[in-house]
Amino acid sequence: MAVLSINNLVTEFDTDEGRVRAVDDVSFTAQAGKTLGIVGESGCGKSVTALSIMRLLPQPMGQIVSGSVELDGTDLTQLPIPQMEKIRGARIGMVFQEPMTALNPVHAVGRQLTEALLIHKDIKPDAAIREAVGILDRVGIPSPDVRMTEYPHQLSGGMRQRVVIAMALACKPDVLIADEPTTALDVTIQAQILELIKELQADIGMSVILITHDLGVIAETCDEVVVMYAGKVAEKGSVFDIFDRPAHPYTRGLLKSIPTLNTEPKSTLSVIDGMVPGLLDLPEGCRFENRCTFSREQCISNTPGLQAIKEQHQVSCLRWQEL
Amino acid sequence: MSPILKVTNLKMHFPVKEGVLLRAKKFNKAVDGISFEIQPGETLGLVGESGCGKSTLGRCIARLYEPTSGSIEFEGTDITRLKGRALMPYRQNIQMIFQDPMESLNSRHTVGDILKEPYIVQKIGDKVSRAKRVRELLDIVGLPARSITRYPFEFSGGQRQRISIARSIALNPRLVVCDEPVSALDVSIQSQILNLLVDLQKEFKLAYLFIAHDLAVVKHISDRIAIMYLGNIVEESTGESIYHEPRHPYTKSLISSIPVPDPHRRVKRAIITGDVPSPINPPSGCRFHPRCPRVLERCKLETPLLRTVADHQVCCHLNDL
Q1: Is B69:B9 a contact under the CB 8 Å cutoff?
Q2: Lowest-confidence segment of A152-161, A187-196, B14-23, B158-167 by average pLDDT
């Protein structure tokens, strides 16, 4: 069942050098109980998409220009701020990349956790504290009642991220947006956190939108995948479509360029030449054209739209049928 | 073949100053008794979680720190206690690449100035020959010659890392310490830099000490891999053998934690619980015992030693059984 659907979202930023379109015509749907992965390199618009959904774009520079974000039929982009505040933290939770910046360093963990409960629920402070201790215990923090009185700097990176997850999930949201939740963590801690998100998802039945640049994390956790490039969706489909039958030359290039534990040591890795174009001087046609090995005359001038390969697998490439 | 670098029982303890008088009562034992060798033209990969001391070890070898005890021998000469002018010839031979090129390149110098500096410091060549050499270096790392007059901020992350690489090979070093050279880069750029490092190694017979936390990247570039945990090497072997037959429980869980980019291989992973303990007050006995899934009574008391088991060096009591 679709919980959150993003339709033709366009987000722009006013910068000193001019107006920049960071997210350009992005659409996808998040299903209840499923995990949707958004993958792409820095600057591809994946985080801005998340901030647009939450209406947390830096003001006044960032603006949603067109498109809609529908949560159970309500368009969030049109909601007045007070109503949006009722949705943030209650129906959509968010986990950020760097837990130290997501937590307030001068407030104890307990105060930050109960804040969400007190705002969104009709609940007495002592009941909120009891509930918060229960949530900390659920996210695997040892001796949670002691931790409630501690400050973020007294916790390790993995523990902090558990607290952030506890905050995001305090009100059992319908959707959890996790923006690079494990990028700042070590692999052993990353494995713990990803497992925790999976368990909690099974408990609550929420939909998870996982934003990452790590294709390994995508393969391990996601059901659906959206590949973004320079503000646009390059390809989207089920995780098996994307990894077994990638159709976009960019997806293929990405998958081939990562060293795995099975590649021959010191062999030449295949590369995607060049680099992502700046958002200020985007090429006219296909945005991947200047790095694409399959580029033709038509790709320089024509912008490809998303085309369906089959149901649920779409690609934005003019030549996908020939490749 | 004699090793290019031989490290014996190296320790680097940082004083932790506390109290009103700021006396050092405790020590952060970042590197605590490490021994290994690197052969000419070889890559030794060094893997471990944050805070395990891998960067400190790299900096000791580049002699950016003076180690507390132990010895570092470069081509048979002990360089552990050398200072100032006496270190100069070794600075030529041991170079370093850092993780974040924006911080390791001077933002107020042009790329030409940055690449000329090693020759000025070492008093090599004159103006004309230096300029010629800078153009050669840019060509080697795949940057256009017009980059000379530009500043670091005008380049992307991958190009900046190319500039740092050019600077590190400027003096034809024998050993380059690479401290997380690709972890700040995007996937599609990461493979470009890895290919460049492999090409340079073949062309200039460089030896690398390659420090990273990403085991897949390290395995790709390394001949041998050493796994570090809390200031010690817990296992060392060839890349293939570390991956296929890990013997230390920590290595096993590290490999099992890596997400594999293949949705058909979602396996139940051996997740280790807990965090890395503090190196100021490390656990007794084996340092991994509080997190170890196969801990024995003995592990809490006796510190295991690094010993040879088949083609591995491993530091674990389980291998005695």
Answers
A1: yes
A2: B14-23
- Cβ contact A270–B156 (<8 Å): no
Q: Is the dihedral of CA A187, A188, A194, A198 positive or negative?
A: positive
- Is the interface score ipTM higher than 0.90? no
**B271·A255 Cβ contact <8 A:** no
Which neighbouring-strand residues pair with A70?
A5, A75
Query: Which of A219, A243, A261 lies closest to B216 in CB terms?
Result: A261
Which stretches of chain A are assigned E, i.e. beta strand? Answer: 2-15, 18-31, 35-39, 62-71, 74-75, 92-95, 175-179, 207-212, 224-229, 232-238, 307-310, 313-315
Residues 6+ apart with CB under 8 A from B45: B210, B211, B212, B218, B219, B221, B222, B224, B225, B226, B239
Which is it for the CA torsion A191, A197, A201, A203, positive or negative?
A: positive
Q: Which residues of B touch A229 (CB under 8 A)?
A: none
**Sequence letter at residue A233:** V
Question: What average pLDDT does chain A have?
Answer: 91
Taking the CA of residue A203 and the nearest CA in chain B, the distance in Å comes to 18
- Provide the pairing of β-strand B175-179 with B207-212: parallel
A234: tokens are 């390059």
Is the pLDDT confidence value at B321 over 70?
Answer: no
For the segment A159-178, the average pLDDT, to the nearest whole number, is: 92
Phi, psi of A272 (to 5 degrees): -100, 115
Quote the mean pLDDT of chain B.
91
Nearest CB to B216 within list A189, A259, A272: A259
Higher-scoring residue by pLDDT: B257, B74: B74
Nearest to B310 by CA among B256, B257, B247: B247
Residue contact B239–A239, C-beta within 8 A:
no
Q: Which residue has the higher pLDDT, A2 or A281?
A: A2
User: What is the least distance, in Å, from the CA of B261 to any CA of chain A?
Assistant: 4
Task: Say how far apart CA B197 and CA B288 lie, in whole Å.
Answer: 33
- The residue ranking higher by pLDDT, B177 or B281, is B177
CB–CB of A226/A34 below 8 Å? no
Return residues 191-210 of A near B (CB < 8 Å): 191-192, 194-195
Of B201, B219, B269, the CB nearest to A261: B219
